[in-house]
Design a protein that fits this description.
The complex is a heterodimer of chains A (about 400) and B (about 375). Chain A has helices at about 5-10, 50-65, 75-80, 100-110, 125-130, 155-160, 175-180, 215-225, 230-240, 245-265, 285-290, 305-315, 345-350, 365-394, and strands at about 65-70, 90-95, 115-120, 135-140, 165-170, 190, 205-210, 270-275, 295-300, 320, 330, 355-360. Chain A is α/β, with parallel strands linked by helices and about 400 residues long. The chains are: A alpha/beta (about 400), B alpha/beta (about 375). Chain B: One of its GO terms (cellular component) is cytoplasm.
Chain lengths: ~400, ~375
Amino acid sequence: MKFATKLLHGTSCFDPVTGAASTPIYQASTFHQADLDRPGAYDYARSGNPTRHALEEAIAVLEGGARGFAFASGMAAISSVFMLFSAGDHVVVAEDVYGGTYRFLTKVLSRMNIDVTFVDTTCVEAVERAVTPRTRGIYLETPSNPTLKVTDIAAVCHIAKAKNIIVIVDNTFLTPYYQRPLELGADIVIHSATKFIGGHSDVVAGLAVTKDAELGEQLYFIQNGMGAVLGAQDSWLVMRGLKSLKARLDVSTQTAEKIARWLANHPSVAKVHYTGLAGHPGHQLQSRQASGHGAVLSFDVGSRERAKALFDRVTLPIVAVSLGAVETILSYPAMMSHAAMPAAERERRGITDGLIRLSAGLEDADDLVRDLEQALEGVEAALSESKSKAFSGA
Amino acid sequence: MHLETKLVQAGVGRDTITGAVSFPVYYATAYRHPSLGQSTGYDYTRTANPTRKVLEEAIAEAECGDAGFACASGMAAIHTVMGLFSQGDHLIVSLDLYGGTYRLFEQVLSRYGLQFSYVDLRDLQAFAGAIRPETKAVLIETPTNPLMQITDIACVAGIAKRSGLLTIVDNTFMTPYYQRPLELGADLVLHSGTKYLGGHNDVLAGLIVTKGAELSEKVRFLHNSIGATLGPQDCWLLVRGMKTLALRMERHQSNALQVARKLREHPAVTDVFYPGLDDHPGYEIQSKQATGYSGMVSFRVRFSAQVGPFLENLRIISFAESLGGVESLCTYPATQTHADIPQKIREYVGVCDRLLRLSVGVEHPDDLIHDLIQALDASLVAEGCRR
């Protein structure tokens, strides 16, 4: 079955009792037990809810894993997965990991005596060097947020396999439509389903998929034990979004590519990060391990002053945190997604004061380009005006 | 303002645009920034959501605390609070405890070097004696689940304060309608909002209420960083449930008292545990520290072989996990809520295989009593036949 069909028919998504084409929302916290000796499939909604279960099965099928899990947020998925490790364990983590993950690892998990080494995972040798006898996990984000560095998933998994290390991949940016890390050797895939999977800026959710059943059983214990599960209504919304994932990503990716090419030729733009551009250092690798480049790009306008002027002038994109929605979203990583990271760490990772992240939505691509064009022109005009004022003042 | 009024008024007048009396469900995950560096107060829903805020302020006000936090489940609330502690820290916890909490502590958090001692907190000397240099907090469930043991919150909190410990109270069974631990000296209150606060067996939720700016800020950081937050629809359902909390609690309680009295008259029952019975060992403390006794009743049948037939013969009362809803539920702790506690500990505490827990709903009391009596009668007959 092809991916587009799998999105709709990968699991039996209709209600067996009524035939309803959309899975019902089971807003029940508890389930009647008919027999003391034969517990039913569901007893308490934290342990299992039919609506959540339908979503969990759907994502497992799409990622090609044994078992799926739905969490209250992407961070709840990430923090739950990290609970697979114990005090004294060591984890190697991609250095330009999402700011919220960085905060959780350095401010919460560190107090539980889990050592984390941040490395540039685009360099496989650096990953290998960082591995110690206590290393139990490697955590990747590829392409990374927001500078879109590409890590060779298969190569990292190869190192890990020999040493019995679990590889976890945050697949939020590409989704299983473009990239399936479990097929490349990873053990666990994580999603902020708030992004492309939900796709409508209307639900906060996290997902995780394990490759094998045994790891699935361990993660199930943690999901149920810690209880950071996704509610029934939200599970339904994520499933609803999932059905149009391919249709949305096809359009958004085309738009992102068009905008990236246009920005790359614009004199006011110092740098464009998009793996679909042939000049991007990760272009070849990305084209090999994924079937698309996704809808997120970032570009550098040179300074905070210029970035602010641009944000004030755009009319179509929403200026907000988050990404992966039907609406185009512009974010300012230095103050938003990566605000939790110290300035020096940020700069070292290329998250400069002039960097802007764009997540392409479903608006017409020409409208978006025109909007960015007028905004960038306005920035230049405003800055040259203020400069000439400064001269005349002197 | 009285609690009933506070609860009913939650969110009223907050929607200044339309005047909607029921505050809207904000499904937005992202919020448009007016300009770079400016925020409406909402940036990303995990950090703050307008609907969740109504709920968080309502529970903080009801518990007389400074800040409230809504989590994906009661266990998510407990887990989030445990993020306050670091490797090597030690906590003292009620001996008779919800099985899910015990499982989280023993099978997950112990791997991170947190240590837990389970102490009968009715015994203040035992509590004081369990305090070590690395002890950071005491976690009280009162009444305990399922044996309804009563801990003197003010006494434990007093000892805790002198020893520099945080006092955390799981107030799920009583709700702020009957008991407000923060007013008795506790620092932090936990709820499984799934239970009485939601009250309709239809939403899974957890709540945290903190006292003091510093503790509130720490929990706010953990709540956002760990991310086990509650979705907006569930927040709205919980607020909706809380508006009728007072009415429901009164009915739960009066039904529970009638059920408890009838149960002890039945020959198939050996023990009844309900803190509202005036010969319950915790009755005096409960009457002093709370304004009511809530709707949870546990009881032991004479023979474990009665349990199966009893549950099968119930007609109105559902055999299901959970509690605190309008529908009456009966739970068998040994295999359900407390299955994760080792049998030896379970039996030492008194959660034996003859113990049943009733969450008395708001049906007519005569129907509930009739259902229980016929099922108990049937269980005696079945047990007799087997002999």
